[in-house]
Hints:
With 373 residues, this protein is an alpha/beta fold. The protein folds into 3 domains: 8-24 and 31-68 and 178-251, 3-Layer(aba) Sandwich (Rossmann fold), CATH 3.40.50; 75-175 and 262-311, Rossmann fold; 324-368, no CATH class. 37% of the residues lie in helices and 17% in strands. The protein has 16 helices and 13 strands. The strands form 4 sheets. A 5-stranded parallel sheet has the order 2-1-7-8-9. Strands 4-3-5-6 form a 4-stranded parallel sheet, sandwiched between helices. α2 runs parallel beside α16 (360-368). The longest helix is centred in the middle third of the chain and has 17 residues, at 228-244.
Amino acid sequence: MIENPYIDTYRNTQTITRTFNALKTLSKNLTKPLKIMEVCGGHTHTIMKYALPELLPDKIEFVHGPGCPVCVMPKNRIDCAYKIASQTDVILVTLGDMIKVPGSYGSLQNARAKGFDVRFVYSPLEVLKIAKENPTKRVVYFAIGFETTTPMSAALLERVVALGFHNISLHCNHVLVPPPLEAILSAPDCQISALLAPSHVSVITGSQIYRPLLEKFKIPIVVCGFEPVDVGESLLSIVQQVLHQTPKVETQYARSVTAQGNLKAQKLVQRYFELDDNFYWRGLGEIPHSSLRLKKKFANYDASILFKEHLDGIAKEEHKGCLCGEILRGNKKPFDCKLFGKFCNPQNPLGSCMVSSEGACAAYYKYQGIRPA
């Protein structure tokens, strides 16, 4: 008996078994192995939680991509947040996963332990209440995330402007999905055969944002839901595209994703944000036009401008022993890292892939332990 058809249908053991058996049969016709990148950290956790790699045929392998917003956040951005939090009469507010990400000066959790006023929220709109209760302090929202969370930051700014708040500002770290994928796929040593595209992002943007990637790289791209049956169905679609030599953008997660996406959310974002020139990605380096910044007419709310004198000169180096960058490019797995599970674990994370609840290292540690079975 299916208790919740919106969830249980996509976790049904018999359906999972049938789908992956069909995948094994179909994959026998493949002439070469496929490396399929699941872009989103949510997909990574589904894959590890349900031990889907154990169900894959020999010719198919998962590799992990740069779709975890905390994982791609470079150390220098954490350092900026720490510097802002250390200023007098400042309250720094951010989403929960960012609290433990280590920077050069320590994490934001360390900053809070030193007495700086750092708070985490579940919704950016909670910033309004904090600012109202602290009218003499500057409340800085450290905004992070892909296209999924950017509309929430835009909604916050819209309320700030409408209500006349003068003590709220945003430090914008919103990034875009297509540019890092283009950078990864353009690498000379790239072996990625297909993409499982992120569904939450696609709900906002629509599946149309992946068409330029399809046209340039001619690989299958399937917008995939977050349940094990979703993943199995998406893999079947990819293999069929490969066998028929008909790569295309396909939406498996059609129960939530359309081609055009959420037009209202897109317009809200366009009202307040514009493309930035560059963004330094963890493990990927500088990628042009891969992030957003506040439009110039909203400069009074831009924390990167308001605190510019404190943020200049922050270095961009990452932890030399951490393989997060290689993992985010799909070149390595967490078990390849010498720090994994020994010096780097959820209680003492050295890299962002272990900190975030969506990180690949966190998923491996939680579902497979220190070493593979």
